[in-house]
Amino acid sequence: MKKRALTGYRPTGRMHLGHWFGNLQNMLEIQHEYDAFYFVADWHALTSDWADPSQIRLFTEEMVIDWCAAGLDPDKCTIYRQSDVPQVAELAMYFSMVTPMGWLERVPSYKEQRAQVTDKDLGNAGFFLYPLLQAADIALVLSDVVPVGEDQLPHLELTREIVRRFNSTYGEYLREPQAVIAKHGARVPGLDGRKMSKSYQNAIFISDTPDEIRTKVKSMMTDPARKLKTDPGDPELCPLHQVHKLIGDPSRIESWEDCCRNATCGCVAHKNEFANDLTEYLADFQARRAKIAATSGYAEEVLRAGAKKVIPVAEEVLATCRRHLSIDG
């Protein structure tokens, strides 16, 4: 039997290049190598968007369309909506009994988002507890591996600690998942140089039109030390260059590196070429996406089929956990 893999995304907005290179490319490969479970984390979306959940359903459907247009095959992997599997909430409650609050307080992304996301109220208990819910997502299907970006490693280690403590308290059963690191790394820089994120409003979305891409790229940060075209720069410090080398021809990337260091070219020309390259890179994906989006009810049908596949797995795992907890009734 194949080993099992699980990962998911929160439907809090459209998918961007950070998702594409941070994890989605791994997901495409893993669906052929593992028994892969991919979920749309709508409950996780509620932890941050609880005050206005009106767009979660729309973004859920958009995410499924993006995934399938990118190459995920519902016949090869299980694509489902988190809230269609209520067993995950029960397992998260059991995990809350064995998880010290200090473990949750040390999660780096919790501190980072509380500090940097200023347009949402993240002071709710749900946002504080979402690593528990995440651990339940992973454990509920007995996942062997989790494809993640490097910035998600602390979350996965917390899951391993929670599972370890659950097993040591109630008896060995749940699996401690291992990480599969995204090949291109986790931190794709956004327009402002920070990690690309919907929350930071600095993202280039994979469904952006060519005109939208060009407008965004024009505003993208380059090496801050290059004030003038005649100032030598460091391409390693240039967010634009870091994204361009993910998609550009290696010989052209090397040429841009040389001319940046020697101040023989300007950032405007580099931005123009990057915008053209990115538009071409996304063209096939966007054509497939348009075709899928035109199919009425496509996303909901994929999610319904996925729920039918995952719920029996979740029921069996939860039933075993109840027996370990001596509350199987």
Give a topology summary.
Blueprint: E1 4-9, H1 17-33, E2 35-40, H2 42-49, H3 56-70, E3 78-81, H4 87-98, H5 101-105, H6 108-116, H7 125-140, E4 145-148, H8 153-170, E5 178-181, H9 210-218, H10 239-247, H11 250-261, H12 267-293, H13 298-324
Parallel strand pairs: 1-2, 2-3, 4-5
Helix pairs in contact: 2-7, 3-12, 3-13, 4-7, 4-13, 7-8, 9-12, 10-12
Question: What does the model show?
Answer:
The chain has helices at 17-33, 42-49, 56-70, 87-98, 101-105, 108-116, 125-140, 153-170, 210-218, 239-247, 250-261, 267-293, 298-324, and strands at residues 4-9, 35-40, 78-81, 145-148, 178-181. It is mainly alpha-helical and 329 residues long. It folds into two domains: 4-188 and 296-324, Rossmann fold (3-Layer(aba) Sandwich); 210-290, Tyrosyl-Transfer RNA Synthetase. Helix 3 (56-70) crosses helix 13, helix 9 runs antiparallel to helix 12 and helix 10 (239-247) packs across helix 12 (267-293).
